[in-house]
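Reopening this ticket.

The earlier resolution said the output was attached, but the attachment link was broken on my side. Pasting everything inline this time so it's all in one place.
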Amino acid sequence: MPDRSRLVFPSGSPMSPQSAAETDLAQLLVESLNLEGVNASEIDPEAPLFGEGLGLDSIDALELALAVSKKYGFQLRSDNDANRRIFGSLRALAAHVEQHRAA
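Inline output:
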């Protein structure tokens, strides 16, 4: 299991502040994926969600896509070529959600 307690950039640079949309999405991420020991407010919005960042995997991506669909009223399709960019960071995902969410 990846170490999800290290949520800053590997270089140790300070975390950028989360926007309101990023904070809301970070909370959804922590709750829907049952990320024990992770505080939503401490997720760096620019850090990668997969790999060295938060350490999510493909199953997490599917669960997160379902949670986003339920909460925001649109689907994140698994065959979308832009998924690597969309799921690249909390900031990228929040921007995509804000652009596509149901009114």
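Reporter confirms the inline version is readable. The helical segments are 20-32, 58-72, 83-86, 90-100. The mean pLDDT is 86.
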